[in-house]
Design brief:
The complex is a heterotrimer of chains A (255), B (361) and C (180). Chain A is an alpha/beta fold and 255 residues long. Chain A has 10 helices and 7 strands. Chain A has a single domain, classed as 3-Layer(aba) Sandwich (Rossmann fold). Chain A has a 7-stranded mixed β-sheet, sandwiched between helices. In chain A, helix 2 crosses helix 8 and helix 4 crosses helix 5 (113-122). Chain B has 361 residues and is of the alpha/beta class. Chain B has 2 domains: 3-193, Thiamin diphosphate (ThDP)-binding fold, Pyr/PP domains (Rossmann fold, 3-Layer(aba) Sandwich); 249-359, Rossmann fold. In chain B, strands 3-2-4-5-7-6-13 form a 7-stranded mixed β-sheet, sandwiched between helices. In chain B, strands 10-12-11-14-15 form a 5-stranded mixed β-sheet, sandwiched between helices. In chain B, strands 1-8 form a two-stranded antiparallel sheet. The radius of gyration of chain B is 21 Å and the shape is globular. A 7-stranded mixed β-sheet of chain C has the order 2-3-1-4-5-6-7, sandwiched between helices. The two termini of chain C are 26 Å apart. The mean pLDDT of chain C is 93. Classes of the chains: A alpha/beta (255), B alpha/beta (361), C alpha/beta (180). The interface between A and B is large, with 33 and 39 residues.
């Protein structure tokens, strides 16, 4: 057994290696959660671009509040919804730096609507990564602005009712309307091809910062198997069948 | 030769910020302090010193921009007035929790709610007790002249970085709107990257280099014991502030039998009341706290051993009086006299209040 | 020397700028000065007043109820501030805005026909400088040279060509002020 391990870990046999931009910390995310994959993509893009010492992340309040434990760069942890304002403060005083926010749907599309709207409208030269899993994960599965009609959550136990709760918010399309955004796209990480595409989108977003093009906004539709009360496999299937029709993948704006 | 000008308190905040090497101002308009951002925008310091000035979409956004800027070791500030400062409380507690240095100017107006645009001192509790949630304090400076509005900007940044703590300049509409002669400071260059490395290299988000651990500006700690340990650290810091940076001024207190305790514009009015008292043969003096947190309780205690009584004069229904009474601890009478809701007390009515409430003649 | 002055009239009469020029003049001769306006949503046409204090010492309250001098430019201000002049103090007013003459006999009262003189000159904007001249004649607390320097400091450079006109208006005020 030991001999076999020694054999397969020989340098010439290694086909994949964890990017050094990821810390070795064990992630606190639930099995099947999309955050782990997205963190990895962000870390890889930063590492491959050689900009770790020039990148500052802003983490949100929500499941990814502890993102700073996993991606090995300097981070500011923002108050709930305020990450785009925090990123604005950093970016304005450090125009040479790569500044990004990493936010969930509750943080970005509910409590932080004003901050994200105005950061995008000013065309802050930052990247906004928006992970949309249509639910509040950290607080235990409550309704988010992006929760689908009829979707059961702990605060919509009989399903989201538009008369009571309004409609699922397509904030990404809203932000694409603003002149300050240069690149607005929606991606997913449920299959290897989708992961490759999402990584390309993230890479492009960071390259836009280098070109001083304004705000790049990358939505990634993800799963929350714990909140959705499904197995990871069921969650992926449910996302494809229910989330994608409402939140179709692809570039919304690219100038 | 120092430059001497006639300036409004609000305008001088802007001028002092530029001259002391402030890196960024983030604000949102509100009366009676909008001249601060207007002056900055007219001055265009980004052309002169590189200082960034940005009008945010809300007070909440402004304080969070300060949070971001401060986290990178830059000198960042914001200003507002009472209703706007209420909105900033969330940001302030995060700044205190992440131990980030910054400067906040509060040109207080009367409340509650939308209240009035006229001057008041009714936000003493909010400023000195923390204001937001959690066990924290701001270091609070109370200017009583346009000159001090100037001086406390550089001093505020100095103390903010000394303690890694937000510092508030608590002014009011009188000090903000009044013009006085002011001696402006010489220009101090903004900090270079090397300066920031020297001053804040241990914590500032300057970009993670290979040779150091990553820096994280955060106020989150899920482990209760570690959080308690952090709270101990904050409390120790507040004790150091109290020991080293408590400031006050005494006027005519040497032989005073009766002492007014007042800060900011109330202290200016009380200065006149002291003159009026002396003209009438009443030995009055003025004790003026300059730091409201930490409150100068020891020097006030010392005075209470020889004075017959104290009158706390505030443009509030009675807030600082609590600190005065805690310092004096019941040894001699200490009463409160206030006008509020935007009304400024007159020197005469303060003298009358002293006679009525303390001297009792 | 401490001189505590209230200047009161309508917005648009140049009350605040007159106070500012006076304050700057004080700075020019090394005095301590304070200028405290009533502020709020009072714009042109509403009442406006400003407290100006010049002193050789540190200035105490910028908010006062009694003044060494009151300069009164409309009836509302007369009603409000006549009683606020200290006994033995000075009241200067423009009779053109006044329907009731001041009545106190324990103060020194002067009048200056500033509105009429300004209108006659064809330049109504010099009104406040005529009033300032009247004040400086009665209370020569700053010398004219320093007022001129004060004008230079308080006016933007693009208005500096107007300084001679203003100085002339101050002289007119000095000449035409009379004991009431």
């Amino acid at each position: 057994m030991t001999a076999e391990i020694t054999e397969i870990t020989r340098e010439e046999h290694i086909v994949y290696r964890k990017t050094p931009a990821l810390t070795g910390n064990v992630m606190h995310y639930c099995p099947g959660c999309s955050h782990g994959v997205i963190h990895k993509l962000v870390a890889e893009v930063i590492e491959e671009a050689g900009i770790r010492d020039k990148t500052i992340g802003v983490s949100p309040v929500g499941c990814s509040v502890l993102a700073y434990n996993y991606i090995d760069i300097d981070w500011a942890e923002a108050a709930h919804g305020r990450a785009p304002a925090v990123a604005t403060g950093i970016s304005r005083l450090h125009p040479e730096k790569y500044v990004f926010t990493y936010q969930g749907d509750g943080d970005l599309a509910s409590i932080g609507t004003a901050e994200v709207m105005h950061a995008c409208n000013r065309g802050e030269n930052i990247v906004i990564i928006f992970v949309n899993n249509a639910i509040y994960g950290m607080t235990g599965g409550q309704m988010a602005p992006t929760t689908l009609v009829g979707q059961v959550t702990s605060t919509t136990p009989r399903g989201r009712d538009v008369k009571l709760n309004g409609f699922p918010m397509k904030i990404t399309e809203l932000l694409a309307q603003l002149d300050g955004t240069t690149y607005v796209t929606r991606q997913a990480v449920h299959t290897p091809p989708a992961i490759r595409k999402a990584k390309n989108a993230l890479r492009k977003a960071f390259e836009n910062t280098k070109k001083d093009k304004g705000t790049s906004f990358v939505e990634i539709v993800g799963t929350c198997s714990s909140g959705w009360k499904m197995t990871p496999v069921e969650a992926n299937r449910w996302m494809v069948e229910n989330m994608f029709p409402k939140y179709p993948l692809g570039d919304i704006k690219d100038i | 030769m120092a430059e001497i000008k006639l300036m409004k308190g609000n305008e001088v905040i802007a001028e002092a910020a530029i001259r002391c090497g402030c890196d960024g101002y983030f604000g949102y308009p509100i009366t009676p302090q909008s001249e601060i951002m207007e002056t900055l925008m007219a001055r265009e310091p980004w052309k002169e010193t590189g200082m960034v000035v940005l009008q945010a979409e809300s007070e909440i956004a402004a304080i969070n921009m300060v949070y971001g800027a401060a986290a990178t070791g830059k000198k960042a500030m914001t200003s507002s007035s009472s209703p706007g400062i209420s909105l900033k409380q969330e940001g302030l507690t995060y700044l205190a929790g992440a131990e980030l240095p910054c400067l906040i100017v509060d040109v207080v107006r009367g409340g509650p709610g939308l209240g009035t645009i006229q001057p008041a001192q009714s936000d003493y509790f909010q400023a000195t007790r923390g204001g937001g949630h959690g066990d924290y304090h701001l270091l609070v400076l109370a200017p009583a002249s346009v000159q001090e509005m100037n001086d406390f900007v550089a001093l505020g940044f100095e103390l903010a970085f000394k303690y890694r703590n937000p510092v508030m300049i608590l002014a009011d509409g009188v000090i903000g709107q009044m013009m006085e002669k002011v001696r402006l400071d010489e220009y101090v260059p903004r900090w270079s990257d090397a300066d920031i490395e020297r001053v804040a290299g241990e914590w500032a988000l300057t970009g993670k280099r290979k040779e150091r651990e990553r820096h994280v500006a955060t106020s989150l700690e899920l482990d209760a014991y570690k959080q308690e340990e952090f709270n101990h650290k904050l409390q120790a810091k507040y004790r150091r502030m109290e020991e080293h940076d408590t400031r006050h001024e005494e006027l005519s207190c040497d032989d005073a039998e009766y002492i007014f305790v007042a800060y900011g514009s109330s202290a200016r009015v009380c200065q006149k009341s002291v003159q009026l008292c002396r003209e009438q043969g009443i030995k009055a003096g003025l004790f003026r706290p300059i730091t409201l947190y930490p409150f100068p309780k020891r020097p006030l205690q010392a005075l209470s051993r020889r004075a017959k009584g104290f009158l706390a004069v505030e443009m509030s229904a009675g807030q600082m009086i609590e600190d005065v009474r805690l310092a004096i601890n019941g040894t001699v009478p200490a009463e409160h006299f206030g006008r509020y809701g935007g009304v400024i007390p007159t020197p005469d009515e303060i003298v009358e209040a002293l006679k009525r409430q303390i001297i009792k003649t | 020397m401490t001189e505590e002055i209230i200047i009161a009239g309508f917005g648009g009469q140049g009350v605040l700028s007159m106070g500012k020029i006076l304050a700057y003049s004080g700075i020019m001769q090394d005095q301590e000065v304070a200028w405290m306006p009533s502020y709020g949503p009072e714009m042109r046409g509403g009442t406006a007043n400003v407290t100006v204090i010049l002193s050789d010492e540190r200035i105490s309250s910028p908010v006062l109820t009694r003044y060494d001098t009151a300069i009164i430019l409309n009836q509302q201000s007369m009603d409000k501030f006549e009683e606020a002049v200290k006994a033995g103090g000075t009241l200067i007013y423009d009779p053109n805005g006044i329907t009731r003459e001041p009545a106190r006999d324990d103060i020194n009262t002067f009048k200056i026909e500033a509105a009429r003189l300004a209108a006659e000159s064809g330049n109504p904007k010099i009104f406040n400088m005529i009033v300032l001249g009247a004040f400086l004649k009665v209370k020569p607390i700053v010398i004219l040279d320093n007022v001129e320097k004060g004008l230079e400091k308080s006016l933007p450079a693009r208005h500096h060509h107007l300084i001679p006109v203003n100085v002339e208006a101050i002289r007119v005020g000095m000449t035409r002020v009379e004991k009431a």
